[in-house]
Amino acid sequence: MSELYMQNRELSWLKFNERVLEKGTDEDIPLYERLKFLSIFDSNLTEFFNVRVGSLTDLTLLKDVSRDSKTGMTPQEQLNEIYKECITLYAKRDAIYNDLETKLRENNIGNLKYNELNEEEKAFINNYFNKNIMVMISPNIIDKHHPFPFIENDSLYILAELKTKKRIMHLILPVRDALPPLIKLPNSNNYIMIEEIIINHLDKIVPNFEIVEKYVIRLTRNADIDLDQGSDEEIDYKEFVQQKLRNRRKLVAVRMETDKKFSEITNTFIKENLELEDNQIFVTSSPLKMKYVWSLGKYLDSRKVSSISFNPYIPRKTNMITEGSPIFPQIEDHDVMLSYPYDNMDTLIELLKEASLDERVFSIKITLYRVATNSKIIKYLLRAAEEGKEVTVAVELRARFDEINNIDYSEELIQGGVNVLYGVEKYKVHSKVCLITYMDNHKVKYITHIGTGNYNESTAKQYQDMNVITSNEKIGIDASNFFNNLQMSRVDNEYEYLLQSPSTFKKKMLELMDREIEKGENGYIRIKCNSITDKDLIEKMAEASRNGIKVDLVVRGICCIVPGIKGETENVRVISIVGRYLEHARIYQFGKGERSDVYIASADFMTRNTERRVEIALPILDKDIKNYMLEFLDNQFRDTVNATELQSDRNYKYIEGEKFDSHLYYMEITPSYLYRPSVVREEKIQNDNTSKIEIPEDKETKKRIFARILDFFRK
Length: 715
What we know:
Active site: 430
Helix content: 25-40%
Organism: Helcococcus kunzii ATCC 51366
Catalytic activity: [phosphate](n) + ATP = [phosphate](n+1) + ADP
Number of strands: 26
Radius of gyration: 28 Å
Largest sheet: 10 strands, mixed
Protein name: Polyphosphate kinase
Distance between the termini: 50 Å
InterPro entries: PP_kinase (IPR003414), PP_kinase_C_1 (IPR041108), PP_kinase_middle (IPR024953), PP_kinase_middle_dom_sf (IPR036830), PPK_C_dom2 (IPR025200), PPK_N_dom (IPR025198), PPK_N_dom_sf (IPR036832)
CATH architecture of the largest domain: 2-Layer Sandwich
Number of helices: 21
């Protein structure tokens, strides 16, 4: 039965976040970086409750009980297990945080409580409170004349139990986002959290009440909204999404965090007003919001913080491009690979800059999912439009928690004369494709970029992603057809070389696995992706294992296939890499060595990617780039520093052996075969029947012909 070798996705995700948390105990990692892992753990868990727990909570309200297809668990059973696991995770996080805080204090950096301050420091903080905080305080005392206020998602509040001669009341006081998260104490690198200051000045805020109990709290609400449900074709889609986002803030509560256990009176008060159960209330001694960690260098002595941080790493220029020379002819000569964050994004940005100014270029098309603040990608797309080129941008307004940012960018692009698409109804456009079309020597030519990660300069420095830029004509034609279909909201298309979800990606992956199964023991499957949840693909990998095929998987996050189950997945191996950089690339290998088929893709092996999103996968045709991909996967399985291996009991175990850090390896080394890229490739697709268009020399006739070409591509 498949249930023997499958596990629930939510519980698998919690194991992933536990691996993130455990990096806080790694003594080979600098102290400040270990504290950052705790902050990542916190933000991950908050989003998990926002989305996954929120979705399961919605499912519990339905009359028809749906069950997890892999384990048979009901939504309520899954929630019960999640809340149970989280009790253990909170205790583990608090222990790690307390240990780190002790070590940080040994380095003269401490997060102090108010009662730990000396008289000089208390005077400084009291003065700061009076001048800067008191004016921003808006207390809410709840009684029959003042109803329970709305509690914002993921915001800090002070909650107090107050007493008068006649009755018990409660105070709820928001900690304003406009306030700094912490205040540096004078003459030291110690600091105090802003909520700690406020909670210790409540007697000044409500002087006529006895303060019985006081707490710092944070509420998490369901944020899993369906941005397609209820869509009206008569309403502007952007306005519809904005309305849905306004509704998100009002959704049901799914988690309450507090810095200490509620009294019986306060517990009842909170549960009744927020409709919470006891198992949804978590007590923690760690700071409730740990986003402040990333800005410690801003508030404290930056040199001191740097001394307990990773040594800075500056991503390098790829060796496959000669710096200072035009990029177009180099890509026409050979494919170019960018491996973030070891290679920087400059080559892609310079390519767009070059394209925006090149008179030969008449069209630039790109898909955008998550974009950096002050994006140079946006800058050069706008410049291209200013230069009279046709610029088409598919902006996915439903990219979760980036919706507002994408709406803002879409408006800027539209104002700049760019043709903006809002994706496809019921399918998020998650593809990473950029197509530059130009005329050269009377021929239509293409430069196509396809990657595994976003067009985002910020995340490119932290996320490990793969990218290929090619002048291959047939790849360009496929990409051109892809954008044409996107403009017509068609997602059921087949292309000659590119694979697309939901139409061909999953089908081709299954076919390639079947091919390896037919080879028997000579078959081989190796996959690197973020998560695996698709039951059809899991069952096919189990079938391969039963037929003696070795299946090696590098899965950072959710992994619903369990290896090592006798008679089912004995030939499956699963490792997870969690380290300095976020593993984000998707690489799919079928077969061994140079004869293997290798793809990179925007898609994971998740049902949402294979069936409910528009994704693109690219076959790796260049010999040198394929060798890099294969060697890269080899080195992932050599990692003994960042890697853990999934066991048959569903737990992860650290890998023993000679110390090898795959992240450090690629920070220091570029494989020699990438210094001199191949000019002639055996795998290069030849096309001797390229049509030529004769272009007259006079400018007016040229303009008319270019207009006809543009009209052709629009159609």
